[in-house]
Task: structure prediction
Amino acid sequence: MGNTCSSIDKIICPGSSASVPSSRTKASSSLNTTGNLSAFSSTTFEQSTGSPVSSDEAFIDGKILEVPNLRVFTFAELKSATKNFKPDTVLGEGGFGKVFKGWVDEKTLNPVKSGFGMVVAVKKLDPESMQGLEEWQSEVNFLGRLSHPNLVKLLGYCWEEKDLLLVYEFMTKGSLENHLFRRAGAFDPLSWILRLKIAIGAARGLAFLHSSEKRVIYRDFKASNILLDSNYNAKISDFGLAKNGPVGSDSHVTTRVMGTNGYAAPEYVATGHLYVKSDVYGFGVVLLEMLSGQRALDISRPIGQHSLVDWAKPYLADRKKLARMMDPRLEGQYPLKGALQAAALTLRCIAGEPKNRPSMKEVLETLEEIWALKVRPTESKNASSQHKPRRHGQAPVHPRSPLGARQGGGVGSRVVDHSLKAR
Ligand SMILES: Nc1ncnc2c1ncn2[C@@H]1O[C@H](COP(=O)(O)OP(=O)(O)OP(=O)(O)O)[C@@H](O)[C@H]1O
Ligand SMILES: [Mg+2]
Result:
């Protein structure tokens, strides 16, 4: 989880069988310099015949391009666009590597001097990374062809020898994770309305993926992969772990269980069975982070409280207790009815059984109903006294909450191989 994460660890679930992600070899692709990745892309959406739910409204704004329309950059061009990958252009860092700010001409996408043209985000593979060609290919295959207002736009890529880079539209306000959890003064607290707006945007993106004719399971839904533009429109990024939906059955069995600790659905972690509803679980965890202001996983919290889901379930289920779980940075400024509905929705999303979770279409509809309530003056009289604003990085004060411990460290760790791995 980018710049704030001290460790990224993925799960590999031994013993699971079946499909292997697309080829890792360079020879399998037909990369050329015109920007077409024909072999990559033509196979990406042909593996699944999962039943389409194409009438979904979320699909209307999006489309699957026949051929990705991507610019092929040379390494020299991206070096120039990012001032030689100068440290002061670093926007963040994730499991793949660092993300740099770069400048390109709006029309030609040729590099220009910093401060001119259009800003882009350039993600550069770190040779030490646990990720590599496979994730890079997946990103190009999926994001290169999926087009939707709530998916981040991939503009192009570079592949020269061992240098793998991806070029995206620049998302001015960075990640949701930064807004919810970064320290002092860096970001203003997100209001209830903004949280809802972000949740609705992200739900639209996920609903589009699930409803599109080649059902896509995103597999890595988390706060750091939700990026925000200048108006807090949310866009989902990072398709390195995305998969086509199951063919002829409900679940897809993966050889390697990958995702992020704290967000990955229990059935997936335990068995490698991946469902569209596994994404809904991840969405529920993010909703819970937005309601509570707490990270999905935080090993600096007292024993028994590391997992937000485990801790929060009783609070979500009890309307009298809910206010104690809400993020103090909201300062009680939310409609109680909306919060109760959001809590009930969250609880359904994080249900243990995939079949008991709602579809993303239903999630979206419910969020829109909550949105319609908008913000009314605090309905919970006690809310503001219970929600004293805290400084960033300071202990969230929940008077009677078991999560009143210091926050920070050991956060949102990505899972690989059942072991925590430092990046
Ligand atoms: N298109 C973008 N525009 C602006 N900032 C970006 C963009 N893409 C990434 N970032 C910044 O870079 C950070 C790292 O992103 P990245 O996707 O590499 O890692 P991550 O999501 O934090 O972790 P993971 O590797 O597990 O996905 C993000 O948190 C965000 O702050
Ligand atoms: Mg990411």
About this structure: The domain at 174-420 is CATH 1.10.510.10 (Transferase(Phosphotransferase); domain 1).
